[in-house]
Specification:
260 residues, mainly alpha, Hypothetical protein af1432, 10 helices, 66% helix
């Protein structure tokens, strides 16, 4: 036998070794298959459980959303009832019209829907403190005396005291307290200036003035929208927030906004 040639016995041994290696690989492959099958089944179970939890979560979220909607409806109806009780028969519709304009201004300056809802809520009851003012002053057909006017100026503070303990998700009581403040510090009751006045109150301040001037009052006829816009433009950046004034004027002049 020449060097380098393998004997039959050697070849058989090598073939046997290869057979054993193949058998071992086959066993390993089967083990891997079994492991993958188990993991796949486990993963499927996990995915199914997650899907069930997701469905439950979505259902809970929807139920919560529906509940919040019902609570909001009840809250709105209660607030509107309060508003009606305050206004009738002196300035009926004033607060709802202020709310309409205030919400339009809030949307115009790109405030969030949540902030807009807070603005609306505050606007609908911003004059709630007038419930403490004698009816003869509210309905007086002539100009108020200094003493009578000083009593009128107490209504933001009175409204704040009435509302402050109600846990609104917005700064409603603060907006009510500040809605007669002016950016130059000439407003009441605290004489706040600039950014000391929250944006909700700054919006209410402009909307309140515009609506009040366009509607009749016991002591005077309606002055009209042109006069109201002249007033806020004349005092833009002085008494009233410039951005809010611009938004308000744009609503009426360019977009055809109507209060009634």
């Amino acid at each position: 036998m020449q060097d380098g040639e393998k004997t039959k016995e050697q070849l058989i041994n090598e073939l046997e070794q290869m057979r054993k290696q193949f058998a071992a690989l086959k066993t390993s492959y089967r083990d891997l298959e079994n492991q993958l099958e188990g993991q796949t089944e486990e993963l499927a179970n996990v995915n199914e459980a997650r899907a069930i939890e997701l469905v439950k979560s979505k259902k809970i979220q929807q139920e919560f959303k529906n509940g919040c909607g019902k609570l909001q409806q009840v809250l709105t109806e209660t607030i509107c009832a309060l508003s009606f009780a305050i206004e009738k028969p002196y300035t009926e519709g004033h607060q709802s019209r202020v709310a309409k304009l205030a919400c339009a201004i809030a949307a115009k300056i790109n405030l969030s829907e949540d902030v807009m809802l807070g603005v609306k809520t505050a606007a609908i009851i911003h004059d709630i403190g007038k419930i403490n003012i004698p009816a003869e002053i509210l309905s007086k057909p002539s100009k108020l005396t200094k003493i009578e006017y000083s009593m009128i100026t107490l209504h933001p503070q009175a409204g704040y005291e009435i509302i402050k303990n109600i846990k609104f998700p917005w700064p409603v009581s603060k907006a009510i307290l500040q809605h007669h403040e002016k950016t130059d510090g000439t407003g009441y009751p605290q004489g706040l200036t600039g950014d000391e006045i929250i944006v909700e109150a700054r919006i209410l301040g402009v909307a309140d003035v515009v609506e009040a001037m366009t509607a009749p009052r016991p002591h005077r006829p309606a002055l009209g929208i042109e006069k109201a816009l002249e007033e806020i433009l004349e005092k833009k950046g002085i008494c009233y927030d410039a951005c809010i004034v611009d938004a308000c004027v744009c609503l009426f002049k360019e977009e055809g906004f109507k209060l009634n």
